[in-house]
């Protein structure tokens, strides 16, 4: 059986991301490819991450005449999990093209799991829900054996007489080590390598060592794993990294885990293997402030190559952190940032504004925290109610008509937050401006821009004050 595996996120359709040129190959898709190949299927992979449109896809459908198309987006890269409108539109186009040629299409991405009907009505045969590897395996096995689909495989959504049908939920895999490692050979790595070298001078790829996260931040959508957390064997991950470093010329890694190195025993074993295989590479990770406060964790992270750590700081107001069930304190954020900086590690902060109940004082607390800690990078978002979260339920009655961001720079508030919608756009600009202004004493490039930054800050502030007068009561 011949399968065309493809994906629907395109960096080129996401202006901010394409400008940054930090494009990562689709790791999760490569994992699915490895499994399909292990099962003996002929797999062709058409990667849309760096493509402009669907022209090559249409050509491939005519040339290869696959038995099945699988649109399978990376479930590890946060961008492909954001359910962006441009990605949905493109996925629907891919489905419709396959359907017009009578080629069954199976879809796996975050948005389709939340809104399967949209994808099924566009012509998809199945939408996969939950962890997809076993589901695909079982579905294709039945299809290959009987030349017809089974509608009883757990983890599927499909249409029957125009009505949405769901099969039983797919149980989670507990032994990630049983999966074959992702199939790097199938990825167009030369294209990514060229791009990275041209714009950054090194080659970075993303990998994942775990699935899930045991924490309970109540705005964070975790439809597949809930609070469960599974780790790959450290030896398997280290061997993969050694291969990336020694055979594929990779010079930097983004560890895409929600939380990298959460378990200290795992981290210690991983460190041992990395040292044994001479597989140390500079790492960018996502982590939590509380985890960085221990001495051993920091030592092990530095030993395996930690270069840049992004922390989910969210807010400088303890009241808001508690309302989010974030489980960290403002003091821990300060302590972790100090520790990272003194170890020479770059620190990035994820921040978000507009959480339910956030007022002027909370915003001011966040600005103050930035000012006293001065992380190396900040990434700002607005509170985004994702279906299935407690936050979504809390603001459900306040949701507006728009339910998807167009791209990752959209940042519209999707519910009626305390301040009007344009306030948060201005706040986003204001905070970036102020952050650059604060940096101006250390960096010449900002020093030159200082008068302009100062003028902009005053302008944004004035406009924000006007809009703040239209704030709704809590
Ligand atoms: S925000 Fe991060 S720490 Fe919190 S639940 Fe989500 S992945 Fe886990």
How would you concisely characterize the structure shown here?
This protein is an alpha/beta fold. It contains 17 helices and 15 strands.
Question: Your description of this structure?
Answer:
The protein has helices at 15-20, 27-38, 55-64, 85-100, 110-114, 116-121, 133-146, 189-200, 234-246, 264-276, 295-303, 318-323, 330-342, 360-373, 390-395, 421-439, 444-468, and strands spanning 2-6, 42-46, 68-72, 105-108, 126-128, 156-160, 163-166, 204-207, 210-212, 229-231, 252-255, 283-287, 306-314, 346-353, 377-382. The protein is of the alpha/beta class. It has 2 domains: 2-166, Cobalamin-binding domain (Rossmann fold); 202-418, Alpha-Beta Barrel (TIM Barrel), CATH 3.20.20.70. The strands form 3 sheets. Strands 2-1-3-4-5-6-7 form a 7-stranded mixed beta sheet, sandwiched between helices. Strands 8-11-12-13-14-15 form a 6-stranded parallel beta sheet. It has a two-stranded antiparallel ribbon with strand order 9-10. The longest helix has 25 residues, at 444-468. Iron/sulfur cluster (SF4) is lined by residues 213, 215, 217, 220, 258-259, 288, 312. Iron/sulfur cluster binds at residues 213, 215, 217, 220, 258-259, 288, 312.
